[in-house]
Amino acid sequence: MKNVLIASSLSLLLFAGNAMAQSNRTHVLSSDNTSLAITTNDGGTAYYQYFGPKIQDSDIKGLFGINSNYTGNTIPAFGLHSSGEKALAVEMPDGNMSLDLAMENVERTSDDKGELLVLTFKDKVYPFTVRQYFRHYTGTDVFSTWMDITNNAKKGNVKLLTFASACVPLTRGDNYLTQFHGGWGCESWMSEERLPNGQSVIADKAGLRNAFGSNAGFMVSMNGKPMENQGEVFGGNLIWSGNYKTKINASNNGLNVISGINEETSTYSIKPGETFQTPEFAMTFSQEGKGGVSRAFHKWGRKYGMAHGDKLHDILLNSWEGVYFNVNQETMDQMMADIASLGGELFVMDDGWFGDKYPRDNDHTSLGDWMVCEKKLPLGVKGLTDAAKKHGIKFGIWIEPEMVNTKSELFEKHPDWVLQQSNRPIIQGRGGTQAVLDLCNPKVQDFVFSVTDDILTQNPEIAYIKWDCNADIMNYGSLYLPKNEQSEIYIRYHQGLQNVLNRIREKYPDVAIQLCASGGGRVTYGLLPWFDEFWTSDNTDAYQRVFIQWGDSHFYPAIAQASHVSASPNHQTGREVPIKFRFDVAMTGRLGMEIQPKNMTEAEKEFSKRAIEAYKRIRPVVQLGDQYRLISPYDNGSIAALMYIDENKDHAAVFAYRMDYLNNQAVPKVRLDGVDVNKNYRIKDLTPRDPKKPSNLDGKVVSGRILKNAGLNVGSSLGRPWTSLALELTAE
Q1: Is the separation of the CB atoms in 366 and 355 below 8 Å?
Q2: Is the confidence at residue 3, as pLDDT, over 70?
Q3: Is 468 designated active site?
Q4: Residue 516 CA to chain centroid, in angstroms?
Q5: Which residues in 461-511 belong to E strands, given as ranges?
Q6: pLDDT for the residue 65
Q7: What's the CA gap between 673 and 662, in Å, rounded?
Q8: Given a cut of 70, is residue 45 above it in pLDDT?
């Protein structure tokens, strides 16, 4: 993005009272492309002054007074001015429900993530402090904000009634909202619509898997229907793994976004001397459309938002769809040998390997009993890691440590460790017996940590953990928490989970861990800092995965998306799709396989070997490069297309898919927005069905200017249903 001064209609331009008063100061945090300006008033409050294209210090004076029809502060609090939407509302120990916050201090500092602006407010009557943080993440165009809320009283709890992380004003115009909804097997379905006056809400109340019904990431365009690579777009994402709520309030007079933990049924009490920290709200601004927001979040995600985002991820075979619960030593060895022969690097044994008194033969039993089922695996996990070493690959294993079956040895010993109400029956989930362990309880936290710790200590050769979560909070009750803290379960659970994950990562910093939750139920930056990737969806149908992965790509980088080649007909949809199409879709994320290789034909195995070899050529650019979405599957056209390119624009990968087919149907050219117009690129067909008959584009050398402005004619290569192209571009 070019540096543009105050020209953006998105820029947050607010008139802060007597803007030229001497006590007012404006503090600017800037990236290479973007600036966030906050104006503070000593003894008063703070205002968002600007968020938009980068400005210089000399431009600050020009901000004041040019948008005086809209005022608002960074922490709209309930009590004195009670109307309207608020970011913070409390009940003091004496029952008073008002706040009157005054600015006490402003500090500029930094940490290992970036530069910080810290504003300290104190209530004028009560011993109550709020520290508000604004951070710019070094090397990115992403900023964030959050609050520390402290009860300084010597006695009496302060109840938090509303405690949002952010209240960000935007410019009201022809705004569109881009958001992502769905459910099991159809996660992250994109929805775009013009914002009406009134309130639009994106919220979750599941308790654990907060990305099924909706995703916390959203975008707001400022000047008409959002486009991929042009136009002004704001992007925000709450970094929290539990219930959340984002309210977008629009009127003829303004537009603002309030985002934070969902306070419904979550009143939280701060004891004397304690501090409650809200999760960060991450945000960015783009003049390059939705794609600019995505690329900013991808870069930030790889550097700050996930574990090991700078390291290439292995190509793996997961056992689930290949054998389901029918795990045994011989079959695992066979699958390891097969994936090694195809060029894979890692084998992951999924569910079905554990249980002594109750062997894990189905989903009705055994969760919580994390001992090897010797009947299935007489040589234990050691036998499997030895087999992996023999085949020259790594080994990984599946666990679901937050859950328990009521038919298990663990539940028989510790029935009080389950979330429940003492006077009501336990509602049970998957298999009719699944319940959620009470991670509010430190003893349960110790147990959940020990599950991972014991497996990795006893089997240090394990390189990968698949961490699953197949239930939400069903029984809202904790036998550990006192009666007056029951309303804190939705929050305390996730604080407990973070404690466990911190301990795991401190002891095992290098193990790769996948975040799975019945598929994509936890596609969230609230947990990704401890995880290397997420299981995008239990739906492995390549056609539907184009849509799901397209939605996820708006905020989450390709390196984080586990995308697997599965059987045809597909186990979830019954759709029959050629193996080339399945591979070409899976290659746009972290490539893997979810299949029993011995059931594949020799032709499929031969193609798989070639495709895996081809993916290794483009893996660095797919997993670490910039993504450009070119033609959307949501446009109901004949094709979808996207590309990845490295920072120097020397190496690229382009993918195109036939999504609809009618005889003599028009197929649009694919314009490659990400290339350098001053370079020439040689095209290679990476995955031709017949290596002796590649696409007619193979071997062509084309200028970037032509590729961007005229585009690739892919019609002859995509002339039938379920056809696809995977191309490599190399600058010459």
Answers
A1: yes
A2: no
A3: yes
A4: 12
A5: 462-467
A6: 61
A7: 27
A8: yes
> Measuring CA to CA, how many Å separate 444 from each of 21, 401, 490?
55, 10, 16
CA dist., res. 627 & res. 189, Å (int): 19
pLDDT at 359 over 60: yes
317 in Cβ contact with 332 (< 8 Å): no
Q: What is residue 288's DSSP assignment?
A: B
Residue-level pLDDT at 683:
98
The active-site residue, picked from 141, 314, 350, 468, is: 468
The angle subtended at Cα 621 by Cα 535 and Cα 708, nearest 5°, is 115
Which member of 538, 626, 676, 685 is catalytic?
A: 538
Q: Which of 221, 343, 394 is nearest to 293 (CA)?
A: 221
Model pLDDT for residues 80-114, shown as the tens digit of each residue: 888 889 999 999 999 999 999 999 999 999 999 99
Question: Average pLDDT of 587-595?
Answer: 98
Mean pLDDT, residues 259-279:
98
pLDDT score, position 40 = 92
181: β partners: 189, 214
Say if CB 186 and CB 548 are below 8 A apart.
yes
pLDDT-based confidence at residue 664 (cuts at 50, 70, 90): confident
Tell me which amino acid residue 522 is: R
Tokens of residue 56, six digits:
């210089």
Q: Going by C-beta distance under 8 Å and a sequence separation of 6 or more, which residues neighbour residue 550?
A: 190, 629, 632, 633, 634, 640, 642
Output the CA angle 253-259-263, nearest 5 degrees.
120
Q: Phi, psi at residue 356, to the nearest 5°?
A: -110, -75
Q: What is the DSSP letter of 271?
A: P
Residues 6+ positions from 328 with CB-CB distance below 8 Å: 376, 377
Strands 218-221 and 176-181, by their bridges, are antiparallel
Give tens-digit pLDDT for 111-135. Answer: 999 999 999 999 999 999 999 999 9
Contacts 24+ apart (CB under 8 A), 75-78: 75/45, 75/46, 75/101, 75/121, 75/130, 75/132, 75/147, 75/167, 76/167, 77/101, 78/161, 78/162
Closest alpha carbon to 478 in 521, 430, 454, 443: 443
Could you give the domains of the chain?
24-293 (2.70.98.60), 628-731 (2.60.40.1180)
